[in-house]
Records
---
Amino acid sequence: MSAKGPGPAERVAELRRLIERARDQYYLDNAPEISDAEYDALEAELRAIEAEHPELVTPDSPTQRVGGRASELFASVRHASPLLSLDNAYGREELAAWAARLQRAIGLEPRGFVVEPKIDGFSIAVRYRAGRFERAVTRGDGLVGEDVTANVRAIDSIPKTLKEKGANVEARGEVFMPRQAFRELNARREAEGQPPFANPRNAAAGSVRIKDSQITAGRALEAYFYALLPAVRSQHEVLERLQALGLATNPVNRRCQTLEEVQEAIDAIEAGRHELPYEIDGAVVKLDSVALQEEAGATSKFPRWAIAYKFPAEQATTTVRGIAVHVGRTGVLTPVADLAPVVLAGTTVRSAGLHNEEEVARKDVRVGDTVLIEKAGEIIPQVVRVVLSERPADAVPFALPSECPVCGTPVVREEGEVASRCPNVLCPAKRREALLHFASRTGMDIQGLGEALVDQLVARGIASDVADVYALDTETLAGLERMGKKSAANLMAEIETSKSRPLHRVLYALGLRHVGERAARVLARRFGTMAALADAPLDVLVDVHEIGPKTAESVRAFFDAPVHRTLVERLAAAGVSMTAEAAPAALEHRTLEGMSVVLTGTLPTMSREQARAHIEALGGRVASSVSKKTDLVVAGEAAGGKLDKARELGIPIIGEEDLARLLEGAPLLPSSDPP
C-alpha cells in the first residue's frame, strides 16, 4: 500500500515556508537559490490550492502580500499609496485570459495599451518637493519600504532637481545596472577576492541597499521611471510628463490599440532583448487610460489593469553529472560542468563554463550538486551558485589535473595568474582551438571551417597551424568526411575571400594574449601595417592610448618568437592582407583623440551603437558614467542625471547635430548645452 502525499494544509504550509525563504534570499540577501520561474511555480501552486480550499487562506499568506519584508538596516517608510507587484502571464493564452478578466472588470472590451520592457532591476519610489529630490524608498512589502535616500541620491542618472522647479511629485521606477557595468563590477570583485554578484538585478539591489553611499555612487547604476503621483489622464501621458520633468523613461515603450498589436510589441521586445544594454525578463502591458485603470481596480497584491508578460526563464536549476577539463587555444585549462539537460531560454543546456580552478573552489561546485545556472546573452551558461541544501553526502571537491588531459604535458601556472596552462606548443587541443578562433566570425570569418572539419584537419595532420589553411586545396577537402566537391569549392572561395580582411581582423584572429577586438583595432589604426607593429619597441607599444603594459608585453613577446614571425610571413606569402583598412574621413581629423565621452539620453536619428562608432572614429572613448575625468557629454532627449552631473561639473555638452558636424571636420567648440 503506497503512502499518501501531504494533504492540502501540509502542502500549503510547506509552500509558504519555501516562498518566504526564497523571498528573503531574493529581497534581503540579494542571493537567490532558485530561478524566477521556479519561484513563480511555487506561488502558482499555492494560489491554486488556496483557491480550491479558501478556508486555508490567511492574511499573512505570500499570496496576500507584495514582495519581501523591509530590511532592518534602514528606516521604514509607509508608501503614499501601495506600490503593488504585477501578476504574470507566460504566453498568448494567459495574456488573453488577463484581457478577458479586464473586460469583465471595466464592462467593455479593453483598447489602448502601453507596452514596456520589464527591466530586471530594483523598484524604488522617489519623492520631489518643490522640484528638489527629497526621499527615496524601496518597494518593500508594497505598503512599507526602506528609506534609501542617501544611496539613491548618489546615483548620477537620477536628477537632484527637476526641470519644473515647483513640482511636488513622486516618481516610481526601476534602478538597474547595465550589462557592461555589471561585467566590470564582477571583474573587479573577483580581482579583489570578493564573490561576484549572481546577476545585474542582485548587483543593483545590493548597491542600493548598502550602508555606504560612496559605494553606491561608484556602481554606474541607472534608472527608468514609469509611474507618477499624482497621475495624469493616461499612461503614455505619464511617460511624457516624466520626460518633461527630466526623469528618464524607457525609449523602447510602445503604444498599442488592440491585443494583437500588444502581442506584436511583446514579440519585438523579446526578439531584441539581447541587443539592449540592460537585462529584461519580460514586458509589462498596461491599460493606457487612467480612468479605466481606476475602474478596473486592484486585488490586495496586483493591479487588474496591468500584467507582466514573462519571457522563457534564463535561469534554471539542474544537477552536475560531471566536470570535464577543456584546453583552449592559449593552453588554458577550463573546467566545464556536464549538466543534466534543462531547458533554458528556449534551448536545451547540457554544459556550463566554470572559468578556472579558483572559480570552482570559490563556488565549491562538485559532481552531484544541484546548481543554479544563468544564461544572460551568453552562448555557454554559467553556474551562479550551488544549492548547498541539496548536496549529496558523498560529493567531493573538484581538483584540476596536474597534466594536460589531451597531450599529457605537465601544466604550469604563471605567477600572478589564476589559470593553469598546457605549455606544449604542439598540443592537438591548442591547435584545434587556434584554428577555430582564426576562422570565427569575429576573426577571419571563414564560413564552413567548423568543428567537425577542423577536427579532421588536425587529426590527419593536414593543418597544424593557421597558415596551413591557405595551403588547402579542393581535392584534399573533397576527400574528407561529409565533404563533397561542391562543399570543398565553397570553402575554398571563403578562404580566398578571407585574405582581404583588414589588419585588425588578422591580429584578432591570430589570438595574441590580451589582444581582443578593441585592442586589435587600436593597434591596427596606430601602426597601419603588420611589419610596423612587429618592429615596434615595447616603450612605443606601452604609450599607445588604451594599450596597457600587459598587452604591450604580450604583443612584443609574440613577435619576438621566431615561430610567430615565420607564421606571419607564411600568411603574407599566401596573400593575406597585412595592412589596416582605409581610414574613413573622420579619422583624418581625430577631434576627440584621447577624450572620455559619455552618451546619455535618446538621440533623434542615431542609435547608441552608431554614436559610439562615430565617437571612436574621432579618437574618443565612450565611458558609462560622468565624473571629473569626463571630457565631453553627448546628450539626447530624456538625458536625466548624467546631463545634470555634467552641468554641475562644467563638462562640455553637445547634441547629435554637433557630433555630426565633428564627423564632417568641424572643430569642437566650447560647451553648447543642447535643447
---
Amino acid sequence: MRYVYFMLFAFGIVRIGSAQIILTEVMFNPIGPENSDEFVEIYNLGNQAVDLSGWQIGDSSGFDFLSDVDGGGLILHAGQYGLILDPDYFANGSTTYDSLISPEALLLTIDGSTLGSGGLSNSTPETIMLIDAALDTVQQYRYTINNDAGHSDEKRVLSEDNSPGNWGNSLFINGTPGFTNSISPVPVDAAITRLVLLASSFIAGSSIPFRFTLKNAGVNPLNKITWSTFLDDNRNGVPESNEIVETFSGTISLPPGDSLDMEGEFPDVPYGEISFGISLTVTNDAHPENNVAIVTHFIDDPSRVNVVINEIMFEPQPDFEEWVELYNKGAEAINLRYLRFADSRDTVAIRQDDDWLAPSGFIVLGGDTALIDHYSVAPEKVRIIRGFPTLNNGTDDLRLIGPTGFVYDRVPYTSDWYGRETEPGVSLEKINPFFNGQFKDNWAASVAPGGSTPGEQNSVFVEVLSSPSRLEIQPNPFSPDFDGREDFTVIRYSLNVETAFINIRIYDLRGRLIRFLADSLPAAHQGQVVWDGRDDQGRMARIGAYICLFEALNPEKRVLNKLKKTIILVKQQ
C-alpha cells in the first residue's frame, strides 16, 4: 500500500529505539534492469534487535511498507544489514546480486510495485526516507547522480551523519549488498592512489623512473609493506609471477589517513605499448583490490621502426587524388596505429586500431576512396585517412612520427626533385627504400607507363647488395660528467668497402640534430669517432636517449650503408 505525506518529515520525531536503524547504501542506477535491480540497504547500528513491522521507505513523494521475503521476518538484529530489494527482483527472476548478498543479511522487499514513486531517478537526485511504525522520520539521504552505472552510493562511517561528505560512490560494480561498504574505513587498508612515470624520454633499453602514492585508508597504522613492480603483458590487471620485475619489502610508519610518496624505476624497458604496474602486499588488508595501479605508455625504439615514405603523388591529374606510399624496409611487422603522418602544416593519425604492416609491405595513404578507382592499386593496400593533408606542388616537408615525437622518416621535397620535366600525374619515387629520404639525389620521377606504382616496387628502383657493415657504441650508457669514468663514448664502425666517406650525426628523440660528428669524412673500412656528450654549440647535452645515425657514401656521395643505434646519456650518482 502506498501513502504520500506532506508535513510529517518536517515535524517527525526520531525515537531512541528507531534511531539505531540507518541508511547505508542506495543502488539507483543498476547495470541490470531498472525495474528490478534497484535496492536500498539499511543497518542496525544499535545493540538490540528492532522489529521493522509497519516501517516504510520512499523517495519523499511515495512510500511503501517493508515486507519480508520467504518468511524471513522483519526483525533486524544488532549489527545486521537489511537489504530492501524491488519486488520485481523476485517476480522477474533477477539473479544480479544473488552471489553477492551476505547470507547474514536480512532480505526485505516492499508491498508496492517499485521503490519510491516510479522507481529511483538516474537523472535527478532524490531523497530516500525511512519511516518507522510511529510515522517518525528515522533517516533520510539525498543521493548524488555522478555514479557510473552499477556503482551505488555508499556511506563511509556508519556512526556519523548523512551529510554528502560522508557518502561516496561504491568502488565495486553492483555495490556491496549486505556487506561492509567498500568506502568504509577498515582496520587495515593500504591503497595506491597514484602512479606516474617520471621519464623525460621513453626509449627501449633505458630505465623509466616512477613515483607512486601509498595511502593508509584504514584505521590502524601501517608498519610493514611489500611491493612489486611488474609489466602487465597480458593486460589482465594482475601481477603474475612471470611479469614481476622486482620485489621490495620495508618497514614504514604511516598513520591512518596519511599518504607517502615512494619512488623507483623500471630497468631495461622493452619496446611497444607497455603497461607498467605496482602491486602492494599488506597482511590482513581488507581491500586488496586497490593495491594495484597500472599506467600504460608507449616505449619507442627508433632503430626498430623502419617504415619509410617511398613514393609521393603530390601533383595528380585534374580531379585525381593525392597520396603517399609507405614501405616497411625492416625485418618485423610495424603497427600503423603508432604512426602519424605529417606535412608542413597538418598531422594526422594513420590508424585508430591495430593495423600491422608486414616486412617488405606497402601501404598507400590518401584522403578519398576514389583513388582505388583512379590508380592501379589493390584495395587492401589502401588506408583512407580523414583529414589527409593537402600536399603542396612546389615544396613540402613530409614526416612519419612516432608516439613519443621521434621522426622516423622525413622527406623535404621540392618540385625539382623530379630531375626532369613532367606532366601532372607523375609520382616522385625513391630510388631505393634504404636510401636517405632527405636527399634529392635519392629520388626521381616515375617512369611507369601509368605515371606511378602505388603499392608496388618503384619503377626507378636500383638494387643495392646487402652489407655486413657494423656499428658499435661503447660505453653505452655513458656519463660525460668528467669524473674520469665513462666520460666519452666511442662510435666504432666496420664497412664492407676499403674506403668511403662517412657522416655521423647525433639526433635527439624529436629528430633534432644535436651534433654533426663527421661530415663526408674520408674513412677506411674500419675506424672510430669519439663523442664527448656536447652539442654543436659546445653545450653539454641533456640526460636522455639519442640516436646515432651513421652513413657510408661512395665517391659520388651516394649512400652505401646507413646504420643507427640508440645512445643513452646519463649522470652518475
---
Amino acid sequence: MDDAAAAQAPLDVLVVGAGPTGLTLANQLARFGVRFRIVDKAPDRTGESRALGVQARSLEVLQTLGLGEALASRGETAARLLLHVDRGEPPAIELGHFGRDDTRFPFILFVPQPETERVLTMPLESCGIVVERGVALQDATQQPDGVACTMRHADGRQETIRARYLAGCDGPHSTVRKLAGIPFEGGAYPQAFALGDVEADGLAPGAIHAFPGGRGLAVFFPLGRPRTWRIMAMDPGEQRAADDGADVTTHALSLAELQSMVAGPTWGSVTLRDPVWLTRFRLHHRQAARYRENRMFLVGDAAHIHSPVGAQGMNTGIQDAWNLGWKLAMVTLGHAVEPLLDSYQAERWPVGRTLLRATDRLFAGFATSVSGGRLTTAFRRVVIRWVVVPALSRRRIRAAGFHFASQLGIHYRTSPAVVEGDPRLSNGPRAGDRLPDAPVLRDGQRTFLQEAVASPHLHLLLCGPVGAWQRDDVAGLARRFSDVLVIDYLARERSDHALVDPTGAALNRLGIDGHAIYLIRPDGHVAYRAGGTDLGGLAAYLGRWFTPRAGVAADGISSRARGHR
C-alpha cells in the first residue's frame, strides 16, 4: 500500500483523550504496530496536577515500556505524613518503602501529573507518533465494520475519520460515552472542596501535612512544580448542584477564599501566596453501566469516577488502558478472535465497581470524621492521636493499606478469558492474577521476571528442569502460534536460552516445586496455568482465543521462540 492509499485506509483505533489513560493506550497500541491516531480537544497538555500518586502496579505497567524507573526518578518515594492534631509537635507516619519483595516498586510515588504525561509521551515521540491537539470529537456513527467519526479542528475544519474501534479516554464529560448512549450512574457527595497549587509559609518541607484536628480539614502535598504545595481543603461554603456527571464540578476560587478555608484547620499557622491554579469543586461517585457499546469503548474517567481517597483514579485508568490495548491490537491484527474484546468489560468493570464502593466507604468515614461542632472536633483529636496514629504506625496495617492502594492484588480470576488447567496447581498466582516479579538471569545477565516477559506477545514460561519437556511438542506449539507466542524455560539450573533462577525466588513465587506451565498475557497477568508438562490443555486454550498461523497444522514443528532458535 502506497502512502496515499494508507492515508485513506480506515484506522484500527481512534483514541479520544490524551491524558495518562489515553497515552497509556496509545503506547500499548504502538508497541504492537497498530494503525491509530490519538486526539485531544485541549490545545495543549494540562499544566494542572490533578493526580499526584502513582501506585506500584502502574509503575510496573510503565516499566514494561521502560518508563517506570524513569518516572520514579522524577518524584518522591520516601514521603512522611505529619498529622497536625493540635498545636503541638505533629506525630509522623512513614509512607516510604513497604518491604514487599515481589515488586520493584514497593512504594507510593508522589509526582505531578504533567510529569507522568511527559514521560508517557516520550516513547510515542521517539517513533514519530504525534498527539493531535485541538481536535474534538463531534459525532460518531457505528457501522458494521467500524465507526465513522466527525472531528472538528481548532481552525474550524471538519474531518471524517473511519476507525474499526473508538476508545473514549476523554474523561468524566466523555463525548464518546454520550454518543454511545451509555448511562453514567451514581451521584455527587454533599461536601464541597477546594484545590490550589501555591506557596505556603509555615510548613516543613518534604512531607505531607494533614490538619484534621482543627475546624474543617486541610491537606498539603509536596508538589515541587509549578509550586511547592498542592492543597486540598474542605469548603464550608454553600453546597452546589451537580452537573452532568463530571468528577469535579469546578467554580472560581480566590486566594483569599482558600486562605480562609485553611485558617480554621491550621489554627492560622499557614500563610498562602503565589498561586498558579485555584478551584473549588465537588466530588462524584459514578460508573458507566457498561464499558463497551459494540465498537466503542470507555476507558479511565470516562468509565468511572470516585473520591481521591487512596489515589486510585489515574492508576485505574492506566490499567484499564493496559488491559484493553493488547486485546484491541491482537484482534485488529488478526491474531485473536473478536470475542476476546468482551473480556475487557468482564475484567475491568468489576474492578471499577469494587474501587468505587471501597473509596465511597473510606470517603464517607473521612467526611463524617471532619464534620461536627466543637465537642466533635475535640473528640476527633483524641481519636486521631491515641487510636489512628498508633494503628497507622503498625507495619501490618500499613502493609494492608499498601496492598489496597498499590493495586497489586487486582485479579481477573472470574474472566472467561483465563483458565486454570489440569493438573491444577495449589500454590502461586492463579489464572487472572498479576505475575509477581523476581530477579532472574538471562545469558548470565541479571534482569527481572516481569521484564523478561515484557513484549507484545503471549509469553509461555515452561517452569522446572529443562530436560523433562518434550522438545517436539514445544516446537510444534510454537510454530502453530508463532504470530502471538514467545517461549522461555524457567529453571534453577543453567541451560542455553533459559531464564535461570539460581536462588529459586521466581519459582517459589510461582508456587512451583516440580514442573508447571504459565502463559503470561501482554498486560502481565496469567492467562493459563497448569502443573506438569502436558501441553494439550494449553494448546486448546490458545486455539479458542488466538489465531493459528495460516497453513500450519496443529502438530507442526518449528519455532521462533527464544528457547528454540
